[in-house]
Request: fold
Amino acid sequence: MTSFLYYPGCSMDSSARAYHVSIQSVCATLGVDLHEVDDWNCCGASEYFSISLTRAQALVGRNLAIAEREKNGSDTLVAACSMCYLNLAKTDHQLAESPATAARINEALAAGGLRYDPGAVHVRHLLEVIVRDVGLDAVRERVVRPLTGLRVAPYMGCLLTRPGYDGQWSSFEHPVEFDRLIAALGAEVVDFPAKTDCCGGHMTQINPTTGFELIRRLVSTADRNGAHLMATVCPMCQMNVDAFQGEMNRSFHTSYHMPILFFTQLMGLAFGADPRTLGIGSELVDARAALGHIGIEVPPGPASDERPADAEAPAAPPPRVPRGRKGPELPMPTMPRDGEAIR
Amino acid sequence: MNDTPFEPVIVGFTCNWCSYRAADLAGTARVKYPPNIRLIRLMCSGRLDPTFVLKAFAEGADAVLVSGCWPGECHYLEQNIKALRRFELLKRVVAGLGIEPGRLQLVWASAAEGQRLAREITRVVEEVRALGPLDWGGRHAATTALAAAPPDSAAAPDANTEPEPEPAEVTA
Amino acid sequence: MTTDERIGVYVCHCGSNIAATVDVEDVRDWAATELAERGVVVARDYKFMCSSLGQELIEKDIAELGLNRVVVAACSPHLHEKTFRGACARAGLNPYLGELASIREQVSWVHTDKPAATAKAKAVVSGAVERVRHHEPLEELHVPIDPHTLVVGGGIAGIQAALELADAGFHVYLVEREPSIGGHMAQFDKTFPTLDCAACILTPKMVEAGSHPNITLLTWSEVTGVSGFVGNFTVTVRQKARYVDTELCTGCGICQEKCPVKPLDEVFEAGLGYRRAIYTPFPQAVPKYPVIDRDNCTYFANGKCKACEKLCPTGAIDFNQEDEILTVSVGNIILATGYELFDARKVEQYGYGRLANVFTSLEFERLSNAAGPTNGRVVLRDGVTEPKTVGIIHCVGSRDRNFNNYCSAICCMQSLKFAHLVKEHTDATVYEFYIDIRTPGKAYDEFYQRVLEEGTVFVRGRVAEVTDALRLPEEAAEDGRLIVQVEDTLAGRQRRIPVDMVVLSCGLQPASDAKEVARLFGISCSSDGWIIERHPKLDPVATMTEGVFAAGCATGPKDIPGSVAQGSAASARVLGRIQNGEMALEPIRASIDETRCSGCRICNDLCPFNAIVFHEDRMVTEVNAALCQGCGTCVAACPAGAISGTGFSDAQVMAQIEGLLLANVDRQRGGKAVPA
Amino acid sequence: MALAASPVPVTGVGRSFLDEVRTAAGQTSRLEMCIQCGTCGGSCPSAADMDHTPRMLFAMIRAGMREAVLRSNTPWMCVSCYFCAVRCPQDVHIPDVMYALKAMATRAGRYPDSTAPDFSKTFVDNIHAFGRSFEVGLIARHYLRHYMTRLPGVAPMGIGMLSKGRLGFRPKHIRDLDGLRAILDRAGELEESAS
Reply:
């Protein structure tokens, strides 16, 4: 039983309840114990930093301080929402970077009887913990119902790999970790160039036209590349792509139907959990038909307008010429294998 | 000069091939650093005789900065490593004499690192300013001792009593 | 206290370089009064001490006032030490009885507060005065110069250096790691700005170098060891087994035609074409003899094949050859180890290695080269389609804190050349995506003008990404093409420009083993990995180590003219040495007073130059002055104080410490002096 | 515009606008290092909707065009996806600069369109009230104020969310609200005294 400090974030008991329950289910299966930080507060999302830097840092600082106070054994603070993860990690980084700022924030925290030593807790995202600490082998071992035949667009979103303070991801632009996890579940990972593009965050609220355009780019790319559904690691991304897909379709006169599920929901399915215990069915863009492809039945719900999976073939990967073969094609440059450093 | 704030005097030993040239480079590039440091040029950090440091403290330096080429970049192949060994020992001796560790510092700087050397000097000066003047009981004793005995005999406890000792094994 | 030293102190204004921050007159007067008892008999200041008038001032005083020590407070000894030693010598004073105190680089240029700077200048002068009191007259050491020279690296810079020396009648060992000399230039098609064909101007030089009686060509070879010092280096070279007897081989090339294995040629063809397991990198290779690459040869893999051996008309194939270790003696060394291309896979947003039709600059050189894998056809990765639109991206891996901070100097011109070549080979529209166009060379900007006239489209903006992901519905038409997303900074708008081919103008970086090479030859590299010149402006081809020179891209990105000029410059420096037959070295050496040596042998293991020898018979240690480099480590280590280092003796350093800390002044005062 | 009324004020007098922005961004933004290469504007997913690209905005900041900068919608269009930050060859912390500019514009009450500032404000008010964000309250208040017309459009979504139990009607409170408020107020004071 590996144990971590856990910061759920506000959406977990409302819009992202499905994420919450599936995380519980998956962590139970994997033997990961998430110890919820006591009396945590909102991370400020992207709003508070645009009102007041110091207060925003203090707001996040309170959570860090409480986490530090509660840490025993593990100093890892796990967040499952990319926004929460970034705000926690970024604030910790900023405090560590500038002693002056740290002093100021601690002065503020003192007003609430708290203090935080920069670097005291190590903020990480749930996905990274599962990929690194739990490990893909452990995940594979627990797969009882491989998602064979399910074509998944791995959507990591922007905030998870960027700015990437501890360089924990293989890349800012095209990280491979999420793909590997989904592949480990037996699903087929479609080429998804928009993997780390932005879902628009609060744009659906403050400037819908922009927000819808960003959502359209994601959904259309996933659709064009033949995905049955998208997998996400962030409540904000899920909310935008799922809840606003209808409004987006209306504003562009399109008819995309691209379900988006939390990666923990897919893991739960692969681990053989009952779809309902994973919150499946609570998405507005119905995923059941997509899951139907691989014989996963999710009882009752509205009928789906899922188009046949083979409507569009996945985009062809760039032509690769096997070494030593002669022919008109020019060979592709060799790419580094896992762990191989590029000088 | 009690009315004026404390300005430490720091003696810096530099290597002719790297840190002294770094200092030149800092000058050519007009990089600024506090005037509290006064540099001495040696051919190599390996030339640093422990008595030089003791002498500096004895004659009123508030701190001593030793600088040489980065390990592996020594103009004389590996002499800076030997200097490093000797420095490890020296730190203990100096501590034994009741001088704060912060007053004896080692900085590697290649000939290209004028900016960096200036930054490091500034840092050291600030740290020593915080430490205040070197109030060293042993200063007088040392002065007379150094005056009496020939400088080299004071160098006797040397890091290289064994052919290739690890810093850890080195004991006076 | 009295003293028989008669010291003159000369404080330089250096125009306003020193005088602006240091009160020169004050320093002069302070030295004249406060240091009078330390032997200072005269202190003067002058606008430019290094001027002939300034030097005459010193010479005059030496003659008239009978000075026997001189302190000049001016710039760094690395600049003018020689100058003032000259002045002393002319006045009949041993040059080593002078001392140059740096109050410019280490005082006036780095400090702003005038009183503080002036005080420090006084301390520095005081230190120099105390030090100079302990100076001793020294004679320069003279070492003979072995007329043979080692040139490392067979690119254009190395070839040029070797030819200059050889033509002057001196013997050169030219060592090249690859099977042939020629370097990167041999891979190019055209050279900017004149567009001469690279092969046409390079091959004659290669042939000349290969056949020159004064040049020993050691290709497929690497330097493995260097010992000794200027004038007298001993270098070991590992000549890798060619498995071809160069005595018998005629270079007919049948073996290459018949070899069944066709591995990817990652070096010469930049991974764009194939060679054989037995190969010469290119037809004009010098020497003409092929090499067998063990890793790909079927025979070495499973003992079968031997096609080359069977078909070689002269029986030159010899699978039993082994690496040879050669030892050569040389007086000087020229490093022309060149550069490596920045690995574009690191800039992921440009998709190199992921997107088929993204090419590196070196790949494009091979594409457009008539002797290249496509016979000069500029085509997409499919090998047939001609691009209709080509985007050339500048500054890939350069001027970027994520990769290399520096400007790679050649990329702008290289990119302009590519634009021209694309137009020459195809009807494509060409885009140049640049941050700044830098064309500071003869006829370079004119070339820029020409490319403008040819209708190349210039977009000022560093490309954000190259993608095959379509975004806007109207891009559907562009399916299968690449989209270059960039802010057109002059229009202030983000643009997505569809192209068929992207060429990345990759920057230059030091060879991956640059640091090891530097260590091997006892020189230093900048943090970037480029070799540090003795002086970036005034001594660009010398290194800090006597007898080791550097030319071409080894010291930083350069174009061909620059590399050639440096090759010649380096050889000119070497020729001067050889002509003199000997050179004078600083007499900074360690010497052992046998009467004080206890024979403890502590020093014996400290010397990396094996200059310290122990005489079992007399149980004493001795220093070989010729081998000693004067680092002084043994001096510091000797528990008996038997070893003394000329120029940096304990007495000198101790005295300088006292002076710097004004203990000298205090003593006569009987109190702590405040220099102000 | 009349030639006389140049939009670019004479700078170099006193503390420059650039310094102001740098301070507001927490001093570590490296904004002064911008070489105007446009990597940010090229990478930005919402650049098309910005009235100035980030790069151009930085040039305007240097030019001291305070009014134009604070009125610009650029910072408000920033989705803080950090593409610009990780690609910037000069390692300028661009999203932090955008946050700072938003705060400055809000304080100066310059930005004409109140939608975004209001959203942030409402969000922050909720935090002060409950210690957690309160989606229903937030969205409801926001739509009523700014998107009456959008309501029919989003109705199905809202209903969907409710029927799927994805919207909580009662806001969650944290226990130590007083402590949180004390911290935020103190932080506010410190920020005032700093700027």
Chain D has a mean pLDDT of 87. Chain D has two domains: 17-108, 115-180. The two ends of chain D are 34 Å apart (CA to CA). Chain D touches chain C at residues 35-44, 47-48, 52-53, 55-56, 83, 87, 89-91 (CB under 8 Å).
